Amino acid sequence: MPSGPKSAPTPTTEARGDRAAPRKASRRFDPHRFGPVVGLVLLLVVGTALNPDFATWDNMMNVLTRTAFIGIISIGMCFVIISGGIDLSVGSMAALIAGGMILLMNALAGSVGSPVAVVALGMLFALLLGGGFGLAHGYLITRGRIEPFIVTLGTLGIFRAVLTWLADGGAITLDNDLSDAYGPVYYGSLLGIPVPVWVFLAVSVAGAVLLNRTAFGRYVQAIGSNEQVARFAAVDVDRVKLLTYGLLGVCVGIATVLYVPRLGSASPTTGLLWELEAIAAVIVGGTSFKGGEGRIAGTVIGAVLLSVISNILNLTSIISVYLNAAVQGCVIIAVAFLQRRRP
């Protein structure tokens, strides 16, 4: 006697199966999620073993302070890479922003209230300039239909050439009185922790919330995963990309605001290879270079990890410190190779 048709699985059964699968997968070790953390812990152990001075509070704060510049830029770069883009100009952009804000502050010195007011105007100008440069990139990429690689490769040369012209091949130096008023932004501390570290922490938290808790963050990930599907889902792809590059520009502006009081000058070598370090931090942190997936926490860990590598090289002289960029390049290639095997 033929049996009756089999009943379709109930929604409850399917839901249970769907819930059970993630629980089972979550118990597995994900090297892309936890690999950077493990790598950082191992580096801390190695650094301490090679030089006892490595594990001191002062050295840790020094590492985090120097990480702040690249780390803040890396957070903006994380959004861009997740969306499927790239920006090769951030180092040159930072150099031009630094030169521009120093020229503005020197011009306003003595004519606009106190030095603190002049510094505040210079900082605001840096943020606006960075955001403007980022939006210009986004406009050329979305409206001009030019590949991000080409646009930012071109502006990489433009930004640094303009700064070199403004500095007449030398350096643009901040006025001494303004330098004294501006110094606490880099050299000051709160509760024993340097100001740049606090700013880095604040930007990191804001970036994580924006990426994981807002519609904008979901749109960024959707565009990087599949741009055409995102368009069919009524996502304004061009607008999201425009804002993503604008966000990166603001992050570059924030990093520059923190960097300028360190030396009080801008030269053609300012921000050199920052784009390499920012991209390396994002990729080492587990963000897929193809886009669609990434985490702010991983990017922060990646930035700290690269700074720790540099610090260990400085303290131990295992290899020449001049090879630091070469080490970072090797790290990028190695991580990219591992990502090819990513499911």
TrEMBL record:
<feature type="transmembrane region" description="Helical">
    <location>
        <begin position="187"/>
        <end position="211"/>
    </location>
</feature>
<keyword id="KW-1003">Cell membrane</keyword>
<protein>
    <submittedName>
        <fullName>ABC transporter permease</fullName>
    </submittedName>
</protein>
<feature type="transmembrane region" description="Helical">
    <location>
        <begin position="242"/>
        <end position="260"/>
    </location>
</feature>
<feature type="transmembrane region" description="Helical">
    <location>
        <begin position="63"/>
        <end position="82"/>
    </location>
</feature>
<feature type="compositionally biased region" description="Basic and acidic residues">
    <location>
        <begin position="15"/>
        <end position="26"/>
    </location>
</feature>
<feature type="transmembrane region" description="Helical">
    <location>
        <begin position="89"/>
        <end position="109"/>
    </location>
</feature>
<keyword id="KW-0812">Transmembrane</keyword>
<keyword id="KW-1133">Transmembrane helix</keyword>
<dbReference type="Pfam" id="PF02653">
    <property type="entry name" value="BPD_transp_2"/>
</dbReference>
<keyword id="KW-0472">Membrane</keyword>
<feature type="transmembrane region" description="Helical">
    <location>
        <begin position="33"/>
        <end position="51"/>
    </location>
</feature>
<feature type="region of interest" description="Disordered">
    <location>
        <begin position="1"/>
        <end position="26"/>
    </location>
</feature>
<feature type="transmembrane region" description="Helical">
    <location>
        <begin position="115"/>
        <end position="136"/>
    </location>
</feature>
<feature type="transmembrane region" description="Helical">
    <location>
        <begin position="148"/>
        <end position="167"/>
    </location>
</feature>
<dbReference type="InterPro" id="IPR001851">
    <property type="entry name" value="ABC_transp_permease"/>
</dbReference>
<feature type="transmembrane region" description="Helical">
    <location>
        <begin position="319"/>
        <end position="338"/>
    </location>
</feature>
